[in-house]
Amino acid sequence: MHIHDLIGVGFGPSNLALAIALEEGLPAGHALNALFLEKQPNFAWHSDMMLDDTHMQISFLKDLVTLRNPASPFTFVNYLHQKRRLSDFINLKTFYPSRLEFNDYLSWAAGHFEEHCRYQEEVIDVVPEKRGNDVALLRVISRDSRQQIQENLTRNLVLGIGGVPNIPDCMAPLKGDPRVFHSSRFRTAFNQQPRARRVAIIGAGQSATEIFMDLNGREDIAVDFITRARTIKPSDDSPFVNEIFNPDYTDYVFNTKEDSRGALLDEFMQTNYAAPDMALIERMFQVFYLQKVSGSQRHRFLRRHNTVEASADAAGVHLRLHDMETGNVHSLTYDVVILATGYQRQQHHALLSSLQSYLPEMRVDRNYRLHSTPQFKPSIFLQGSCEPSHGLSDTLLSVTAIRTKEISEALSRCPLPMPAYPAKHQSPGEVHAAAALRI
Ligand SMILES: Cc1cc2nc3c(=O)[nH]c(=O)nc-3n(C[C@H](O)[C@H](O)[C@H](O)COP(=O)(O)OP(=O)(O)OC[C@H]3O[C@@H](n4cnc5c(N)ncnc54)[C@H](O)[C@@H]3O)c2cc1C
Q: Which of 45, 295, 335, 401 is buried most deeply by CB count within 10 Å?
């Protein structure tokens, strides 16, 4: 079986940026011996939240490569040049392209790595491959589009698997009900409910607000915007605060004592969590203001309301809401309930559970490499699940370009693992490519 130098699980922006960094680090004429496995049928960046008039929340200069290598052919600026839109984009006078355009940029970049990525293949397990007492390799088990189990061997692994929907406990009994879904499935799931008129959105962050504006633009839909918060506060992207997203701030967070790091992250939560853009908040406020002018209340803003229970029948989805101001509990019925309740980033624990005894702490070093026991030779890196140790930029695009530089450099320093097979079983191409990655 072919042995890869690297398998990447997921092919979102993080692992795409890594593929570029690795390829740009190869000596001329050498091929990349890496495989990426992506469960979606093609490259797509949060496709169910690709709504009209939504924009990037960070500068296009924080694209896949610029902070690492501004001369890379994979810059957003070169993408614009290739698409013959550079002058037009300049006339837009913005740092914040539409999400539609950024997704097109990412897809364009991903298109250059088709031969290194297998789509519609979900990794379901990673098991140790032992040689004597040592774990020399990893066997990556995946399920392909035909539901066939595939196995691939690798010397190193990088997980770039993003987040999974955070579902409040009280909504768990309605799992599988097509009328209740997470914001990450919004476009597809909502289109499957053509008769929805009464809609609840739970949450008060960027996604909740974007969905509210989208539904406001559709006829005959009345929305209850339900949040525990007292109000909607904007994301703080003022320049000094924004410094926390600079790549060198990662060192500061990582070097902060573990017992103080939580407080540091809490201090800046408002930059990223439950904090929509100011412009979006202003548009939403205007909708509510115009309701007051017209005297017709189509939407309601149910602030300080906690959803405590949910049930469903043919009449609709029933939410029991605790009014935190009055203490009253009352029930409301909806055709659709949308959970804009954020993401969890603990999936790597489940995916790596077969390796648990070799990764006792599930802790990463500064280069995002998981600590392991001495007999475990492969390196496993995490992209996007290191917020507690590396800071709030970790789940965003802010440090992607630099993080992939750090990971590719760490990969090049990885100790040569034990040969999996005697050299005579390896094709010259494999030996050559394996050596090439260790730049
Ligand atoms: C709607 C929305 C808008 C956002 N906008 C911004 C923004 O403007 N700026 C910003 O900095 N950040 C933004 N973010 C944050 C977002 O996390 C990053 O933009 C970016 O998507 C992170 O890239 P990633 O590759 O780490 O994760 P993801 O983009 O989530 O990609 C992970 C990939 O892994 C795949 N995958 C997961 N598990 C498996 C498996 N077991 N097997 C195979 N494949 C798997 C998934 O299908 C997915 O394609 C936004 C997030 C959302 C939800």
A: 401
